[in-house]
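Changelog entry: the Small secreted protein record was regenerated in this release. Current contents:
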Amino acid sequence: MNKKLAAALSGGAVLVLALSGCSDNKDDKLNDWAKSLCGQIQPQLEKSVKAQQTIVSTAADGKPEEIQKADSEAFQAIADADKAIAGALEKAGAPPVDDGKKIQQDAIKDLNEASKSYENLKKDVDGLDAKDDSPEGLKKFSEGLQKVADDLGKIQQDGDGALKTLLDGDVGAAIKKQDGCKADASKAPAPSKA
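Regenerated structure tokens:
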């Protein structure tokens, strides 16, 4: 019932896993900037991974009420993490590269929009009737989860632009070098078969 949502969410680990790479960059100012940012966002990355794991772990065997509770809490956690990462990016300032201010502001905008979108997903999940265990009730719940999964896919697709720019080029290389921005791939949710 929740497998499509889990599959869509596993794609959301892209940001976290994209930060796991390694690269060399000799620009001390850029490395200092990345170190400052990554030191602030490590707990948020962990919170996001944990929330994604919660959704994936309840997807296959969870009862509707368990799925609803897990998804609701996870979407709120991801929304909070995105908002906190946007705040950390604001506090870190623009990366010292050409168009650094634009890269920073676009990523902040994307993160804040994603945060609002995840809050809306939480509201959508909270609005589902998880207590009606009749065949019709289960069907409606399943259809509601499918809509949430579709909306989640759109959120992830829409959010790829500016964040991808942040993680590309010299800025991305500097970020990926920082221990504070590395995620343990073994802790990320595995893709689910839809």
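Residues 3-18+27-179 form one domain.
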